Amino acid sequence: MKIIFDIDGTLTDFNGFVDKYAVPFFNKLGIKQVNPDAVEIEQKMDFSRVEISERKKIVNRFWISYRFIWFSLFGKFRPGVRKSLNRLKNKGYDVYFYTSRDKTTEKNIIGVIARLFTKLQFINNGVIWANKKIRFFKNDDEKIKAVFEAEPDVVFDDKADIVMKISRKILPVPPNEYCVQLCSPQPADLMCFYDLIHKLPHYFV
Q: Measuring CA to CA, how many Å separate 176 from each of 154, 193, 203?
């Protein structure tokens, strides 16, 4: 069985990080939060009065701030993730990690550091075998395309639109509440990965 995991928001509580650090960061610049439930910063914050060229510069300031660098290197995985991922590896499942984490595809020193820190984050969380299984993508569209090409059996992702696009094409059953929960663990629930993954062989043959 081939399984693909998203990283930020799925393995990590990225939404919690954004609420704690990104929202105050932009508030100080006069950019207020307008959509608390949004996943992307550009959708969560009100950039309507900021020119597009300036908006990119402001967002970049946050992505290269020390807080995000710390999160990329030392951010903790959700409860149960380490145990679940190592269990999958020991059981012989083919596990990959697909991410569109900002800066990781840049062809400069920032990109090198971003990719390295992402790999070290897995080691720091006790998943030391993952380095050769991480794939980096410039954006979600490229990630979705790569998922289709990989033809996995199961995909875990925290973004509802990605879940629905993928589930309609690759999951062996129609999209329903179970599939959405399976592919999209909600931060508020802190879904136990160990219990969920334990059920995979039963639902996906």
A: 14, 19, 13
Burial class of residue 84, CB neighbours in 10 A (0-12, 13-18, 19+)? buried
Could you tell me the CA-to-CA distances from 113 to 62, 64, 73, 136, 189 in Å, in that order? Answer: 16, 11, 10, 13, 32
CB neighbours of residue 199 within 10 Å: 11
Among candidate residues 108, 112, 71, 88, the one with its CA nearest the CA of residue 4: 88
CA end-to-end span of the chain: 8
pLDDT in tens, the chain (205 residues): 788 899 998 899 888 899 999 999 999 999 999 998 887 888 899 999 999 889 989 998 888 888 888 899 899 998 888 988 998 899 898 999 999 998 999 999 999 999 999 999 999 999 999 999 999 999 999 999 999 899 887 788 888 788 778 776 655 433 443 343 444 444 333 344 555 555 555 544 3
Q: Which two tokens stand for residue 38?
A: 């949004």
- Strand-pairing partners, residue 6, are 98
* Residue whose structure tokens are 């991922």: 85
CA atoms within 13 A on the CB side of 159: 19
